[in-house]
Design a protein that fits this description.
The chain is mostly beta strands. The protein is built from no helices and 5 strands. It has one domain. This is DUF1918 domain-containing protein.
């Protein structure tokens, strides 16, 4: 999984009742665009994320509207 600054990370809830989380990737710390990523989530929380199989990177398009990879 590779990403660029400005892409969005969408993490699906992995248990019943757990909401999905989404946020903007503000820093890529891995080699060649790989994880870990620093993500500013929509709730204002910022954290270092090593995405698992329940995560999807949505690349930023030219219009600023994310699309799914």
């Amino acid at each position: 999984m590779n990403a660029s600054v400005g892409d969005r990370l969408h993490v699906h809830g992995n248990t019943v009742g757990q909401p999905d989380r989404a946020g903007e990737i503000i820093e890529v710390r891995g080699p060649e665009g790989g994880p870990p990523f620093v993500v500013r989530f929509d709730d204002g929380h910022t954290g270092l994320v090593f995405p698992g199989p329940d995560a999807v990177v949505e690349p930023r398009t030219g219009e600023g509207v994310p699309t799914e990879r």
